[in-house]
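Project outcomes to date are best conveyed with an example. Our students and postdoctoral researchers have been running inverse folding experiments weekly, and each run begins with a structure described purely in tokens. The record below, which covers 479 residues, was selected by the lab manager from last quarter's runs and is presented without edits.
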């Protein structure tokens, strides 16, 4: 029976009164044949288990190697040594699982690089960095539900397999049971999807928004939080082929209400982690500072991680229009010195270099950009009276770029169908979506927060592959 185990985190916070305790975990270190550092993932801190000299036979002693799993029973006493308040004076040690030190691929003392750790992603949780990152990721996920639950939003599970391309970008993974070598064909040679599992062509969802809108037009306020899939061939530090997204959708909201909610939401998430994961944030702050020491001065962050997070929760996000953003870029020293690789003019889909200039160099804080040209945005966004722009909003964050994308939705049936026609989106396939505009249509709005980008922002990690357990990227689906 294992259930007498006390978590290391709880042990470290206990008063040592000589009580008997059971610890289980993985060995992080073994010093002088006497001091075993044990970790169970509840915190980055280890509990020191002290074995009296002579207590263990030589055979057992040799088996206490890094990452062997052990069970220790003993008494919790005030620690004699520096660095910890309490320690366990062992009365018995049992090896649960050996770990061959020669073969074990994760040698902590050599400070493995993040790149190497990606190759052994099945073991990287056992490092302090990934321990902290994934506890913070957990806390953020929990806070997402807490935030919306407190506001009375209904959590909707939207489908993973769908026949629609919500974003209209065509970056979908097909879902099929048809044989690859000899699929059934129509007379004209095209593939006959009527014979496919669902009797039609289907794909993995790129967004739960369209279904979310259906629910919002009954519950008023809903959110989704699930995996989304994009077959875009972007091998960057910000893109995943499988990522998690939170998509709230609210009836009776306009674009300003939408911005307010998104800003409040992001600040709430950060505040939650600041309150509940202080130790991990302190570790990550130090990690980032050390990593940045290797960079030239001008590439280092001006603020430490915790300082940056405090700044974000204590200051208003900047709010500007797309047109203002383009003007700022055109006036910028970077533009004048031809530092931008991509063209800048009204109508462009801003590249990451432009977004980062705005947030990192110009405003030095998160920025909400609204009123994008309709040509570069999805069909469902509400058209502004100028005939050129839509009620879109992107939130850009320092070090990340776009973290949120959203909009007020086009609730006017005639305008929506007209835009769909212009963009060659077949109305017949979205008959159910259009029905919400036919039967009691309402002004409504919503946004999508990329969960991994949020985790990047809060942890100060710089590659999105390091904040999701098993990243899916082009040419990579190991584990
Ligand atoms: O801007 P996007 O494409 O918006 C939508 O999908 C809308 N349906 C959201 C809505 O209004 N309900 O994606 C939203 C966010 C982006 O801002 C970004 O943070 C994240 O999702 N994202 C990605 N994250 C990781 N890897 C990718 N390939 C991503 N693509 C988008
Ligand atoms: Mg977007």
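After processing, the design step wrote out the following sequence:
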């Amino acid at each position: 029976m294992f259930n007498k185990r006390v978590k290391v985190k709880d042990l470290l916070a206990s008063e040592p009164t000589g009580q008997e305790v059971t610890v289980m975990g993985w060995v992080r270190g073994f010093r002088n044949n006497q001091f075993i550092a044990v970790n169970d993932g509840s915190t980055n801190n280890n509990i020191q288990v002290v074995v009296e000299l002579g207590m263990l036979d030589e055979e057992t002693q040799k088996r206490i190697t890094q990452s062997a799993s052990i069970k220790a029973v003993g008494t919790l006493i005030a620690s004699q040594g520096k660095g910890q308040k309490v320690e366990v004076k062992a009365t018995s040690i049992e090896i649960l699982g050996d770990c061959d030190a020669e073969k074990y691929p994760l040698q902590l003392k050599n400070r493995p690089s993040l790149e190497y750790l990606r190759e052994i992603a099945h073991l990287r949780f056992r490092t302090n960095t990934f321990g902290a990152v994934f506890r913070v990721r957990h806390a953020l996920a929990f806070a997402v539900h807490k935030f919306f639950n407190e506001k009375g939003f209904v959590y909707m599970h939207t489908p993973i397999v769908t026949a629609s391309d919500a974003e209209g970008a065509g970056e979908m993974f097909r879902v099929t049971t048809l044989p690859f070598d000899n699929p059934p064909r129509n007379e004209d040679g095209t593939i006959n999807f009527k014979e496919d599992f669902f009797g039609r062509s289907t794909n993995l969802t790129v967004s739960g928004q369209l279904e979310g809108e259906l629910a919002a037009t009954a519950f008023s306020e809903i959110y989704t939080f699930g995996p989304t899939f994009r077959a875009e061939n972007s091998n960057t530090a910000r893109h995943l082929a499988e990522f998690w997204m939170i998509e709230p959708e609210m009836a009776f909201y306009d674009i300003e209400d939408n911005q307010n909610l998104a800003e409040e939401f992001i600040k709430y998430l950060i505040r939650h982690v600041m309150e509940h994961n202080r130790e991990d944030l302190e570790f990550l702050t130090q990690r980032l500072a050390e990593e940045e020491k290797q960079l030239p001065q001008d590439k280092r962050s001006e603020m430490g991680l915790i300082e940056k997070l405090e700044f974000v929760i204590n200051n208003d996000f900047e709010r500007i229009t797309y047109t203002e953003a383009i003007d700022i870029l055109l006036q910028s020293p970077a533009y004048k010195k031809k530092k931008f690789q991509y063209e800048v003019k009204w109508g462009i889909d801003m590249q990451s270099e432009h977004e980062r200039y705005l947030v990192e160099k110009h405003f030095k804080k998160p920025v909400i950009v609204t009123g994008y040209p309709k040509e570069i945005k999805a069909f469902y966004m509400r058209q502004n009276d100028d005939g050129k722009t839509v009620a879109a909003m992107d939130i850009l964050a320092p070090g990340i770029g776009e973290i949120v994308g959203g909009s007020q939705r086009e609730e006017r049936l005639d305008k929506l169908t007209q835009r769909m026609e212009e963009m060659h989106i077949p109305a017949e396939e979205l008959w159910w979506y259009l029905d919400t505009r036919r039967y009691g249509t309402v002004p409504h709005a919503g946004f999508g927060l990329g969960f991994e980008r949020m985790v990047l922002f809060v942890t100060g990690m710089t590659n999105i592959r390091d904040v999701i357990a098993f990243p899916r990227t082009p040419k990579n689906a190991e584990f």
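The first strand starts at residue 20 and ends at 31. Residues 166-167, 207, 209, 230, 232, 239-240, 243, 245, 247, 402-407, 446-448, 450, 452-453 surround 4AD (ligand 1) (CB under 6 Å). The training component of this project remains on track.
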